[in-house]
Amino acid sequence: MADPKPTPISAKRTTRRVKRPSREAIITPTTTPEQSSRSSKSGKGRSEKSRVSNNEKRVRNAPSKEVIARSASKETVEDNTQRATKPASSTPSAAQDNKKRKAATVKPGRAQPKFTPEQDSAADKFCNYIKSTPAEQIVSDFEKVQTYPEKKGDCEVCKKNTAKNRYGDVHCLDATRVELKTDFGNYTSADGDYIHANWISFDYLERKYIATQGPKDNTIEDFWRMVFQENVAAIVCVCNFVEGGQSKCAEYFPINAGEYKNYGKMFVNNKKVDDIVYTLEVLPDGCSNSIVTKLIFCTEWPDKGMPTKGGIPLKIRRLTREAGTGPVVVHCSAGIGRTGTYILIEMAIQKLLKGKEPVMIDLYKDLRDCRASSVQNTQQYLYAYSSVLDFIITRRIEYKPLKTKFLKDLCEIMEEAAAADPRPN
C-alpha cells in the first residue's frame, strides 16, 4: 500500500542560491544553443517520419484500425531508435547503417538491453497470458472490476475543500493524500494542507509517484508548494491547457525560456526549453535554496484515448529517468484517466524488471486503492497492455507478432469503448 505521509526528503535536496533578476533585467533571451539546435532536431524528425512512413504503407486497409496499428509499430521503433542512434551518429558508416534500418525492425547483433533470466521468465508469463486468453475475456475481466472498490475509502478532507477540486465526482482519498506543509524555512501559508493529489508507492517501484489533477487557477501555488516540499525530480503533464474548446488545466508555469513568474509566494523560473522538456527552478518566498525540476509537457495523448503518435509512454519513461531519482508527479485534467494509465504502465514494467509477472488486473486494483477512479475505460486499460508489450519487444523482438495480433483482436473494442465513455480524463 502507498505511504500516506512520506517524510519529505528536503535533507537530500540539491541546493543552489538564487538571486532574483530585476524586472528591468529581464529581456527576451537571445537564441540559445538549445533553441538553435531545434532546426537540426526537426530535420531529424522529418527523417524519422520518412522512415516510418514506409512502414505505414503496409498498415491494414481498415480505416478504423489504422491509427492504432500505426501507433503500435511506432512505439517499438521510437524506443529502439533512441538507443541505437545516439552512439551511431559519431561515424559516417554508422549513420548510413541507421538510414537503412527498417522502421519496426531490430536486427540481430545490434546492442540491446538484455533481460535477466528472472525478467525473461516474467515477460514470458505476461505474453503467454495474452496468447492464451481471448480478447473478450480480458475486456470482461476489466469490466467486472471497473467500479473497484465498491466501498470507497474516506475522503473527508476532499469534501471540505470543494473549491480546490476540479471535478466534483473525482475524489481524493484521505489515506494516501499528499499533505502540504504550511511552513518551511521562512515560508508560511495560511491556505491549509490540502491538495487533490495522492501518493502511489509500492516496494517494487524504483521511486514514488504522485497522481494529481491539473492545477486550477486557485491551486497553482499549492501545486508548486508540493513540488518544492517533496523535491520532485520530474513533472509529467499529459494534457494541454485547452482541449476541445474546454479548459483542462491552468497555465501554471512560464512557457518561454528566460521567463519567470510568481504564483502567490512561489517563484518559478524557466531556465531552458528542450523539445518537450522544460527545466524549471522553484523557490518559495523567504527561502534562499531553490530546487530544479524537469517538466515533460506531452500534449499528444488525447482525452479518453490513446496517443496516435508512437512511443509516448516509453519516451516519457526515459525522460523521467534522465531527470533524477526523486518523486515523479503525473497529471492530466482530472488526474485519473491518462494519469492512471501512465502510472499503471510504469507499475507493470517495474514489476517485470523485478522478475515478477505483472498481473494487470491486480495492479489496477492496487492503483485504485491509492488514487480513486484511476484508469477510466476499457481503451485505457488495453493501451496499458499494449505499452507493456512494446517495452518487452525492445528486448524480445520475437514477441512483435503477438503485439500485432493483440491489436487486431482488440482495436474495435477499444474504439467502441472510447466512443461510449463521456467522462473527463
UniProtKB/TrEMBL annotation:
SUPFAM superfamilies: (Phosphotyrosine protein) phosphatases II
InterPro entries: Prot-tyrosine_phosphatase-like, PTP_cat, Tyr_Pase_AS, Tyr_Pase_cat, Tyr_Pase_dom
Domain Tyrosine specific protein phosphatases: start-end pairs: 316-382
Residue ranges with Low complexity bias: 84-95
Compositionally biased region (Basic and acidic residues): 45-59, 72-81
Tyrosine-protein phosphatase domain location: 138-391
Pfam families listed in its UniProt record: Y_phosphatase
GO molecular function, one term: protein tyrosine phosphatase activity
Region (Disordered): 1-119
SMART domains given in the database record: PTPc, PTPc_motif
Superkingdom of the organism of origin: Eukaryota
PANTHER family attached to this UniProt entry: TYROSINE-PROTEIN PHOSPHATASE C15H7.3-RELATED (PTHR23219), TYROSINE-PROTEIN PHOSPHATASE DOMAIN-CONTAINING PROTEIN (PTHR23219:SF13)
Official protein name in the record: Protein-tyrosine phosphatase
Organism: Mesorhabditis spiculigera
